[in-house]
Every structure is written in C-alpha cells, then in structure tokens.
Design a protein that fits this description.
It is a single chain. With 285 residues, this protein is mainly beta. The chain contains one helix and 13 strands, in the order αβββββββββββββ. Strands 1-2-3-5-6-7-8-9-10-11-12-13 form a twelve-stranded antiparallel beta barrel. Strand 1 and strand 2 form a beta hairpin. The radius of gyration is 19 Å and the shape is globular.
Amino acid sequence: MKRCWESGRLFILFAIMIASFIPAWAYADGPDYSVGLGFEFASGDYGTGIKTDSIYMPFTLAVMPTERLDFSLEIPFIYQSTSAVVAGQYMGMQQGQTTGTQSVMAAMSGSGPRTSASSGTVSNSQSGLGDMKLSAGYLLYSEEEFVPAIRPNFYVKLPTADKNKYLGTGAFDEGIAVELTKWFGDWFADGELGYAFQGKSTVLPVKDYLYYYAGGGYQLSEKLQPMLLLKGSTATVEGASALLEARLKVKYQLTKHTGIDGYLAKGIEKASPDYGMGLAVSYDF
C-alpha cells in the first residue's frame, strides 16, 4: 500500500511538472546542454561520536529547452570512511545559484552509530554509486524593479545507492521548492524554500522536512561572483537535530562555455558536517 502511494505521489509530481511546462516546449527554438563534474568533501561526527569523512562526486547532465525551462540528471559516486551514518544529497552544484551538494547525515541524541551497522562493522568504509536525482525548474516570473525572479523547481531522488552499504536510504524521495533572486546593481540576494517527502526506509527512521538557503553576493567582475549564504533544513530523521551551515561560495566564468564553482562550509548545528569544501566544473554547449 505504501509503495503504491509513493508511486502515485511520484506520478502526480511529474504530471504537474509536465502540464506546467507544455507551453514552453511548444515555443522552444532548440535545447541547450550542459555537463558538469564535481568533487566535494565533508567531515564531522554528526552527533554520533564517530568521525566520518565523506566524498561526493556528481556527474550532471542538464538540458535547457528554453531560457525558462531546465531539466537535469545527477549521477553521484560516494565514499564514506565509516558506516555510522547514511549519506544522501540535496542539490546539484551546477544548477544556477544553488548551493552545492551536501552530505546529509542522521544525527540523533546520544552517541554511537545511527545505522544498523554492528560494532564490528561500523568502522568499515563504504563506496559506490549514490542515489541519482532528476530535477526540473521553470522561471515562472522574470525579475522587475520591485519584484524578484521566481523559479519553482522539483526533484525526484531515485534509490540507486546500495542501502546495505549505507550509501542511501533505499527509497524514493521527492521535493518541491521556490527560488527567489533579486539584483540591486552589482549586489544580489538569492534564496530558496522547499519541502521534501522521504520514502519509508529500513535503514533509518526518516521523516519529511523543510529545507532552505538564503544569502547574497557581489559581482566583482564580469567573470567573478562571490557570495555568502546559510543553508539548512529541519530534522531529516526522527529524534534528530536540524541542519545548518554557513558557506562562502565563489563562481568564476573561465571561458564563454566553461564555469567553475567552489565553496568552503562550516557546520553550525551538530547534524551538519564540521566543515566541508567543494569544486565543480561545468561546460555549456
């Protein structure tokens, strides 16, 4: 019954998305494409008392049928130094002003592993394919003098990671969010607020959660754009604490077709990594 509900929920999300985008497809002059490769590192104990280092390497393929509409598929490789936590993902680093992928760990009160790993196997490192993510966004309203640009977006996480290796929860997740962007000369403000629906997992007692980021930056030159932001969510697991971290992000347009994104992160809440960093390169066709 639960599985049927999840499938129905997935279908409804995609049906709404396709129905909303049909007019844009009809007037598309032709699609543009983008590919990207990222490398991200995070470290922390996430409230478990067991330090875990994780590496997240996403390959992203994006298609932009119009200036307003974009679709993307993210295929990640994950490494984590212990089995005490479960790694997941939020957003693709190559997508607009989004803040980069982030390992989402389950941190609950008390210490010790949060997975079903035994004391004899919790120190085992794990690696492999992560959960793939399908995303779509649409620029619903272009920015005007007193109104920000409004961009709703959706994602579906596919359970392609091996849950027995604690690289994923083994369930479908979906999320819906709205991104707002506003420029004030060379300064800009950017933020997003969304809600994620997590499928039932046998690995962790996951729960639905609210996620967000908010920040601002400055266009230093035609190619260089730094920004500061806060990124977080409500608890993603029953009994867990919220996630919150601060990020310094820099975007550099190396050539007409090649862009580089990088960030440094510092965790604020215990469910977030103590620190993290990331670098991604994208190429537009």
